[in-house]
Amino acid sequence: MKKILSYILLTSVLSSCTNLDETLYDRITSENFLQTKEDVYRTFLRTFEHGYWTVQGDQFIMQELPADQFMTPNREGDWYDGGQYIRAHQHTWTSQDGYTSGAWNNLYTGVALATNSLQDIEAIDPAKFNLTVAEQKQFIAELRTMRAWYYLRLFDFYRNIEIITRVKGETQGTTQSTPQETFRFIETELKEALPDLAMKGDAGTELFQGRWTKAGAMTLLARLYLNAKVYINEDHFADCATICRDIVDGKYGNYTIENRWDAPFDWNNDQSPETVFAFPGTFGRSHWQYEGGMYWWMMPYNAPQNYLGFTDWGGSNPRFALQPGRNVDNVEYPFTLGKPFVKFQKYSDDVRLKKYRNLGNNSREGMFLYGYLTYNNNRDTLASTRGYKLYIRDQVGWFKNTPPNQVPADKESNMNHADQNSGVYMLKYPFYRTEDEHKIEADYAEIRLAEVYYTLAECEFRAGNKAKAADLLNRVRKRYYPAGSPSLYPADGSTLTEQELLDEWGREFLGEGRRRTDLIRFNQFNTGTWWDKQPDADSHTSIFPIGFNVLNVSPQLKQNPGY
């Protein structure tokens, strides 16, 4: 078998004894696939579905579990899984941990799909498919943007990556580009795509669900510029701020911040004025953020059917929970990082702090699961699979049946010593009751306008404009607190420190798959201390190793430094 691009090799190529010179009359090939306008749409959209799938699984693990907010501890033997999650937490992963190959292959599959479709659509005569030249250019621009989104994530994870711009007829990958070359490539792709992308408000964009627009592409460019100091040691905060101001000012369409905290994540968020780019989700089709690689396994066993009243899928699994803010004696830990639930409790009138509860008719309150979870008109309380009644704590240990007002004798608290009471759970996207019409219909909001406000606020903060930064943050934060709340930042920004800014990024984007990147940008990922995590000996783990399975089929690739 020929050595070809590693991601295609691992996902697309089959070996057989077929006579390759045989003329096949009953096969669809790249030469005869595009016959109608609908075929063009099919090839255009293929990479979008794959892209939606890549928000969860290995990619989510690599962004959240090495950071200071989420954990997958060993719960009395459950979720030990060969120690892979402990290694993620401790930054001791190796190239043989599956996610190091998985994310590379998953994201490069997206690159290959986008590039294949791009080559297809670039090659057609649009008139033969009842398409205008403008429509063809728009498809091409969206595919370039989609590919840039994959590359930005690969760049962030691995830094030293291949830039693939052709797949048809290619038999092997390329050598790795330098970080500077990759940065310029992504930057150029997004800038060149911009003129041909639609803008929110253009004719037809009211049905533009899950499609890239000018604001979406420019937010990706802002992400690149925001992290440029990390990626290539260049300061692009001023460029980043310019883009964000343009988006906020409506240059790329009219977007606004929602007044209700949960609206950006609710079942009708495809119509939210805060949504810049989202992947469409429905109960009957794609709903990847609701799968076990993300939010579905962010609850105790049996919580969906018993506590939430969502019976369509059976039980859940406590894979992802918040890291603890308190020790076994219920005393807050002294370190500054981590402690996500404590960071929320710092502003005690935050409406998100309510315990999650479905209210019926596609509505809910609260964002967290903690304490006793009662159901059946409070006659029953959720229990663990080992028989003890759950009292979910912002602590980690073996509490078993210990009531909330008592302290267990066992003081051990680490990734290898947790029970099913350990760690608060987050439910950002709702799981409504089975009888509710829109039970899991929320789109996955990959880009929200809130990100643009927070990005601009950070740029202003770094430029010394703390008052402007506080105002921008408060424009989003005010939806979480009552009118006149003291939890809003003072107008002069006097309480806004670098640590508070990092904490606020963590509150707003908790569980949205970006925490590792933010910690690195604030120089805390390798130097910081959080629960069961001491500072690293050096900074080589700020990027991941290229997985062993990838290197095996791609001999032209060189392993990242330190691995």
UniProtKB/TrEMBL annotation:
One of its GO terms (cellular component) is cell outer membrane. It is found in: Cell outer membrane. Keywords: Cell outer membrane, Membrane, Signal. The keyword Transmembrane helix does not apply. InterPro entries: SusD-like_N, SusD_RagB_dom, TPR-like_helical_dom_sf. Residues 86-226 form the SusD-like N-terminal domain. The keyword Translocase does not apply. It comes from the Bacteria. Coiled coil: none annotated. Residues 409-563 form the RagB/SusD domain. Belongs to the SusD family. This is RagB/SusD family nutrient uptake outer membrane protein. It comes from Siphonobacter curvatus.
